[in-house]
Amino acid sequence: MTCKAFLFPGQGSQSVGMLAGLGKRYPLVTEVFAEASEELAFDLWQLIQQGPEADLNATANTQPAMLAAGVAVWRLLEQEGEEPPAMVAGHSLGEYTALVCAGALAYRDAIGLVADRGRYMQEAVTPDEGAMAAILGMEDAKVIAVCERSAQGEEVAAVNFNSPGQVVIAGTAAAVRRAVELAKSEGAKRAIVLPVSVPSHCALMREAAEKMATRLSAVNLSTPSIPVVNNVDVSIETEPDAIRDALVRQLYRPVRWVETIKFIAAQGIDTALECGPGKVLAGLNRRIARDMSVFPVFDEDSLQNAIKK
Fold first, then answer.
1. What is the rounded distance in angstroms from the CA atom of residue 28 to the CA atom of residue 272?
2. Please, which residues bridge with residue 272 across strands?
3. How many beta carbons lie within 10 A of that of residue 83, not counting itself?
4. Is 91 an annotated catalytic residue?
5. Which one is predicted more confidently, 278 or 156?
6. Using an 8 Å Cβ cutoff, are 170 and 201 in contact?
7. pLDDT at residue 2 in the model
8. Which H/E stretch holds residue 6?
9. Which residues, listed in sequence order, are joined to residue 4 by a DSSP beta bridge?
10. Per annotation, catalytic residue among 92, 150, 197, 302
11. What is the DSSP track for 119-134?
């Protein structure tokens, strides 16, 4: 008998046209997006189906779009008879989706919350001030050392430990560029500046975190009905105030995804479903926990394949 976890992707997995097939086949999917649209006062489903891509990729839109996508897949799996998982986790923004699906956070509350989260993040830096880059083929400790040597009084840090040999860094644009060049010279297989305007999970997000703390204090949180492994501490919190605190710190602290997946695997989880568009988390998992089977769910074929497992 398999023991399952559900995983929820974050920003970067979105694309124009995502979940189109599921939306045509299952009214539940578009109903989930209609709920979100009421909260946002614009048609979120139309945005993800028709774009433009630049608008979908604006972080204040991406975040509710990805949350709605994850919740839609979650509810669809429930509708199709899938048993609740033993554990859930989400990558960065996906942690909010995990909390919704674990019953700790109301869906409509979460939609407004993550839209504001996106706005706070964008307001914390000017459009050209921050940057992020992916460093591939370099050990974590070396990436951290590269960032320390490249800072030169500015901010640059390792912020997403996504898989062995894949670390994302973030900070001021100039410091990130210095780190990219140094990483290349120090033996990284690749070092690529990412097409994002918000340097997530670094100290530049402290202002956004302060706003988020105030915003979260006004939102009702409950004890999750399913254990949620958080990003910032790789731990399971049950008290609402502890969950709030972890979400606030998550904005300016690293996403410890490798440790998160190893923690989940250590609990006896042998199968995971990636709930939402794309296959990013499944790809990362192959490098973290090879014995854990991960099934992305994003269209009719992948849905049926996952249900059979």
1. 22
2. 5, 294
3. 9
4. no
5. 156
6. yes
7. 61
8. strand 4-8
9. 271
10. 92
11. HHHHHHS-TTTEEEEE
Structure confidence by residue, pLDDT tens digits, 193-225: 998 879 999 999 999 999 999 999 999 999 999
Annotated catalytic residue within 150, 200, 201, 302: 201
- Residue 157 host element (H or E): strand 156-163
pTM of the model: 0.96
DSSP string for 234-276: S-B--SHHHHHHHHHHHTTS-B-HHHHHHHHHHTT--EEEEES
Q: Is the pLDDT of residue 1 over 50?
A: no
* Segment 18-65, tens digit of pLDDT: 999 999 999 999 999 999 999 999 999 999 999 999 999 999 999 999
Q: How high is the pLDDT of residue 32?
A: 98
Active site residue 92: yes
Looking at the DSSP bridge assignments, the partners of residue 133 are: 169, 193
Identity of residue 278: G
d(CA 87, CA 3): 9
Phi, psi of 79, rounded to the nearest 5 degrees: -60, -35
Strand 190-193, strand 271-275: pairing? unpaired
CA distances from 188 to 166, 223, 295 (A): 10, 43, 30
Structural contact between residues 140 and 158, judged by C-beta atoms closer than 8 angstroms: yes
| CA distances from residue 239 to 47, 60, 194, 223 in whole angstroms, order as listed | 36, 28, 36, 6
197-229 in b/e burial notation, b at 16+ Cβ within 10 A? bbbbbbbbbebbbebbeebbeeeebeebebbbb
Residue 77: what are its φ and ψ, rounded to 5°? -60, -40
Q: Identify the sign of the CA torsion 235, 285, 13, 141.
A: positive
